[in-house]
Amino acid sequence: MFFDTLQAFLDDEENGDIPYFWSHLKNLRMKLPFILAKRFVAGESFEKSVGKAQYLNAKDLKLTLDLLGENVKDRKEADATVEAYIDLLKGINTHELVSSISIKLTMMGLDIDRDYCRDNLFKLLDVAQKHDQFVRIDMEGSDYTQVTIDIFKEAFAKYGKHVGIVIQAMLHRTKDDINELAEMGADVRLVKGAYKEPADIAIQSMPKIRVAFKEYAKVLLEKTAFPRFGTHDDELINWLRDYAGQNAIDKKSFEIQMLYGLREKTMVDLTQLGYCTRVYVPFGTDWFPYFSRRLMERKENVFFVLTAMFKK
Ligand SMILES: Cc1cc2nc3c(=O)[nH]c(=O)nc-3n(C[C@H](O)[C@H](O)[C@H](O)COP(=O)(O)OP(=O)(O)OC[C@H]3O[C@@H](n4cnc5c(N)ncnc54)[C@H](O)[C@@H]3O)c2cc1C
After folding, report:
1. pTM here?
2. Ligand 1 centroid to residue 246 C-alpha, Å
3. CA 18 from centre of chain
4. Which residues are catalytic?
5. In CATH, what number does 42-298 get?
6. Which numbered atom of ligand 1 lies nearest the CA of 64?
């Protein structure tokens, strides 16, 4: 059944049918083996991902480890997630990995109660602060943008350099958010945005998203100490490099981030050229939503999945 769905997807010339493919994949969700995801996901547990993390660190690539999952609905599960994140911080120390972590507020109980979620985040940040580690709050769909920024601001006031946020260039509201966060001196990862959003909320065309990304990147480069840019897009990466060069911005004063399984050689090349780089390394059993976002982004990613399936 997976292969029928895949064939229909590959036969279609338009990327517009990715949602169709995804809706079929979603129906198969419970039956999908991890081998499908292994191109984009380091392992189903931290222990199983450590080897990949060490391999990337050995290439001088810094990491962001991410325990996959989203939208936890009960407190028991949210409490367990907080403990798992704390264990992750400890595991990074034990294995001496050069890695921060990324978290999702919906995994820490945001759908249950806002203040409970904030308290959970603070519990995690207490540990991060104690061991001089860094936690980035990933940005989720637009229903969560405002509350994520609000909770981030509270966390930033208390934990400063130990916490950061993600901002999505595609959202119309970002033109205001970016200035406010930059003025605060927040540690921001700028990305295009991975969630499908309607036209009244988000820019729909890729060229316009790129224009917005560049404008926001300029704000971050001008006003913040160490902005991060999460993209695999050569147009944006080359623009960043040119812009930095033309404006006497040190290559060591910003970071280029990419996702695990994509463009590793480019990351190594950029590192060797003196740029700061970081790979986002997701792991965990709840890999399906992350996996499907990667497939929806680019048709080529489906071929990557197939290649990974037939590789040892
Ligand atoms: C480190 C990191 C963290 C992220 N965190 C978040 C988050 O918290 N919230 C969120 O909403 N989104 C997040 N994203 C996802 C992001 O929003 C985009 O959905 C995703 O990065 C795809 O956009 P892109 O700019 O990378 O390239 P795309 O828009 O997918 O592709 C644009 C062009 O880039 C080139 N390209 C892309 N991929 C490849 C490749 N593998 N090989 C060669 N060329 C390629 C191609 O020319 C392509 O046409 C994150 C992304 C990264 C890298």
Report:
1. 0.90
2. 25
3. 21
4. 138, 189
5. 3.20.20.220
6. 1
